[in-house]
């Protein structure tokens, strides 16, 4: 039984895409970390540059989605464009990367929620208790219809935007060193250290590609995913660029790096504490927590559909393709993701006992989410080149821009960003100098892909390849 329930509209899909990027989390945590670590003022411009790259990527990516409708978009596209062995390898990288992104967020959620509850109630609840509450809610919502999740996420995302917009307005109104174009000047970004800035900023967009994953559940598969992806990327890029510039203006160009290093993710809350009533600060902190929950739910839905697609194609056990008789949601995939998350939470609950509360943020959250972003950027680069291969092999009417120019340009640009992530990986995971950990984490992402590729290649050569990673509810391509 498939998961085709044509209920998602363009606005609903836009909300789900944006929810995965966790707007308040990015502005509060990602932007301040970027300023603190890189020391460059060009963070606002980096969002504009990356937004442009991803919009170019979306041209070929969403065009291919019209012909390849699959709940495991990246790996199905790579299979169609670069061959089945490459598709199987991509499948393994994708499922590991998305799981790392989703499960890692439980660490930050548990820390933030426990800190908030303990401060308000005077308790000493450990992080993992709050993480388990979120886990139970995500597990329950994950087996329901996806449009129900979209409604929950819509409320959360709307409130997140409201809080950040209020911060932006207050920041510009205060502006101790005046309002200027600092942050958007090319000299603020294009200088030594640009690679690290781009490596941090690209993580803020992770989840934007999930629009095509829901192509079997949208009302109009020919236009919904494409339109939603373009709208979401445009909103994310503009919103993050404006808000990171507001952070810079709020503290002043001369002070923003030092203040970011001092306060970290608390920077915007510290600023608001001096210019807003206490109840608003509590609300902002609460919405920071719900922002993380929204990202947990959005990525859970993505992982569940990847498991479903890989079960359908045979890349993973076919039991993962089972869906709910009541909601048609990918039941087995959702449960599998929940079980994995529970196991990891349990492991970190044990090893974090007796350690500083920040330990879970610096390990579980930082290590896992940045490793996940590492894998997803690699998949985006490969998918760009796969688009070229797909259209070259089939007589499908499409413009030269769609078939060749846009995907090649995006592939080259994303390959550069991926290279910068590799070069700066020790910084991304919070290491003071290069060490074995960075290579272990990269291997966790890449090794399953290499093994999947080799096994599929050997199977094909021995004429024993029985599965098609690109198979799904609709024909793989339509000319």
From TrEMBL:
GO molecular function annotation: transmembrane transporter activity
InterPro entries registered for this protein in UniProt: AA/rel_permease1, APC_superfamily
rRNA-binding as UniProt keyword: no
Compartment(s) where it occurs, according to its Swiss-Prot or TrEMBL record: Cell membrane
Source domain of life: Bacteria
Record's keyword terms, sorted: Cell membrane, Membrane, Transmembrane, Transmembrane helix
Membrane topology designation: Multi-pass membrane protein
Gene3D superfamilies tied to this protein: Amino acid/polyamine transporter I
Transmembrane segments: 12-31, 43-64, 85-113, 125-143, 152-173, 193-215, 227-251, 286-308, 329-351, 371-392, 404-425, 437-459
The UniProt record lists the keyword Transmembrane helix: yes
CC per GO annotation: plasma membrane
Protein name: Amino acid permease
Source species of the chain: Glutamicibacter creatinolyticus
């Amino acid at each position: 039984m498939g998961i085709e329930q044509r209920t998602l509209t363009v606005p609903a899909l836009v909300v789900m895409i944006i929810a995965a990027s966790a707007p308040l989390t990015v502005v509060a945590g990602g932007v301040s970390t970027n300023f603190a670590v890189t020391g460059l003022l060009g963070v606002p411009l980096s969002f504009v540059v990356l937004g442009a790259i991803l919009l170019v990527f979306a041209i070929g990516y969403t065009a291919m989605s019209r012909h390849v409708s699959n709940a495991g978009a990246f790996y199905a596209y790579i299979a169609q464009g670069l061959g089945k062995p490459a598709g199987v390898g991509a499948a393994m990288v994708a499922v590991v990367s998305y799981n790392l992104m989703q499960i890692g967020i439980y660490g930050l959620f548990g820390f933030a929620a426990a800190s908030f509850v303990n401060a308000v109630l005077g308790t000493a609840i450990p992080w993992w208790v709050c993480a388990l509450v979120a886990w139970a809610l995500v597990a329950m919502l994950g087996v329901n219809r996806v449009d129900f999740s979209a409604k929950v996420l819509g409320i959360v995302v709307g409130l997140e935007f409201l809080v950040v917009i209020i911060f932006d307005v207050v920041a510009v109104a205060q502006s101790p060193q005046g309002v200027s174009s600092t942050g958007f000047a090319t000299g603020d970004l294009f200088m030594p250290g640009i690679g690290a800035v781009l490596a941090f900023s690209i993580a803020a967009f992770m989840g934007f590609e999930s629009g095509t994953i829901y192509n079997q559940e949208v009302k109009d598969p020919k236009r919904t995913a494409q339109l939603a992806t373009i709208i979401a990327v445009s909103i994310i890029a503009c919103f993050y660029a404006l808000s990171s510039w507001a952070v810079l203006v709020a503290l002043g160009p001369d002070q923003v790096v030092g203040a970011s290093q001092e306060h970290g993710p608390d920077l915007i809350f510290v600023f608001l504490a001096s210019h807003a009533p206490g109840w608003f600060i509590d609300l902002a902190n609460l919405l920071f927590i719900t922002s993380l929950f929204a990202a947990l739910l959005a990525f859970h839905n993505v992982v569940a559909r990847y498991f479903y697609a890989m079960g359908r194609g045979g890349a993973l056990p076919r039991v993962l393709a089972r869906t709910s008789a009541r909601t048609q949601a990918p039941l087995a995939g959702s449960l599998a993701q929940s079980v994995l998350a529970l196991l990891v939470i349990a492991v970190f609950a044990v090893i974090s006992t007796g350690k500083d509360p920040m330990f879970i943020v610096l390990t579980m959250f930082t290590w896992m989410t940045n490793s996940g972003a590492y894998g997803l950027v690699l998949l985006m680069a490969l998918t760009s080149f796969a688009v070229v291969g797909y259209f070259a092999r089939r007589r499908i009417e499409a413009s030269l821009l769609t078939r060749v120019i846009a995907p090649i340009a995006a592939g080259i640009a994303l390959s550069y960003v991926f290279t910068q992530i590799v070069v700066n990986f020790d910084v991304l995971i919070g290491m003071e100098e290069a060490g074995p950990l960075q290579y272990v984490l990269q291997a966790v992402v890449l090794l399953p892909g290499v093994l999947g590729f080799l096994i599929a290649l050997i199977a094909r050569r021995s004429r024993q390849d029985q599965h098609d990673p690109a198979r799904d509810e609709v024909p793989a391509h339509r000319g």
